[in-house]
Amino acid sequence: MKFAIIGNIEKEGILQATLRLARKLAASGMEFVVERKIADLAEPGSLLSAHVEELERCLDGADMVVAFGGDGTILWAARVVGALGIPILGVNLGKLGFLAEFSPDDIEQAITDLAQGRYRVEERLALEAFRPAEPGRTYSAVNDFVLDKARSSRLIDVEVSIDGAFAVTYRGDGLIVSTPTGSTAYALSNGGPIITPNSDVIGITPISPHTLGGRPLIVPRSSEIRIVAHAPGGEVLFSADGQEEALLTPPAEVVVRAAPFPLRLVRRTDRTYYDVLRAKLLWGQDPRG
Fold it and tell me: For the chain, which terminal residue's Cβ has fewer other Cβ atoms within 10 angstroms, N or C?
């Protein structure tokens, strides 16, 4: 098994965690390469120096990607992996760690478990979007696509059509189209439901709707969602996972659908999604103690 090690060098402790992983992999006789930006943090002649590779070449022949960072790093890693379908093992150096469920202290045991087949690969729905005004350009997202009112304080109107049929016009601050993975991100903070990762559905959640009738909507993964945003006198901000952004001139049209390939995450066999909800989001806990 060959590992590609990438990550966010701005995260504290990334060098120590990478060295820890590299030593375990070397001792286990496993092949690995390390992204140059991480390897350059180490002293010359370190173990990482003998396994360094540019990011563009890191994935060549890799069976698994180890991404050091937080959930944002996992979203970035998913974009790097793209259609290659290589499973991603996330090591959390951030705060929440909802997607990157392994900690630096888990590294040695995780490699032992991997070598002995004690792991599972979970496939997550991803999304893609395109704009008729921008032919040939495709955006991708693991969490969500967002259309919002950018720099203006005025409300915008967002028309939503599903599979060619007009569904609803939301008036408010914008709209979120999310995967089940993204249901616990921005959509959750706007009143959207928690959707289990194995659900084959897409969530549509208005941002601060200016009506009590502006409720979230769940549609099948086969749906093609056409969105047209009207913002009188202003621009509309379109973003993918909060990492790719574009300012659009209204009426701004975006079409969203399921991506042809999933995100593949390495998961522990001794922890369920509901365990993660309780641990990370304090789900179901009584604040009164």
Answer: C
Q: What is the pLDDT of residues 102-132, one digit of tens each?
A: 999 999 999 999 999 999 999 999 999 999 9
CB atoms within 10 A of CB 197: 18
Q: Please report whether residue 76 resides in a domain.
A: yes
| Claim to verify: residue 34 and residue 116 sit in the same structural domain | yes
- Show the domain range for 28: 2-124+262-280
Catalytic residues: 71
Q: How many other C-beta atoms are found inside a 10 Å radius of the C-beta of residue 138?
A: 10
CATH classification at residue 116? 3.40.50.10330
Q: Is residue 285 part of a domain?
A: no
Q: Is the pTM of this model over 0.70?
A: yes
Q: What's the domain count of the chain?
A: 2
Q: Are residues 12 and 111 in the same domain?
A: yes
What CATH number did the domain enclosing 175 receive? Answer: 2.60.200.30
* pLDDT tens figures, 159-184: 999 999 999 999 999 999 999 999 99
pLDDT at 282 exceeding the cut of 90: no
β-pair partners for 237: 148, 247
Together in a domain, 116 and 219? no
**Comparing C-alpha atoms, which of 127, 201, 217 is closest to residue 165?**
217
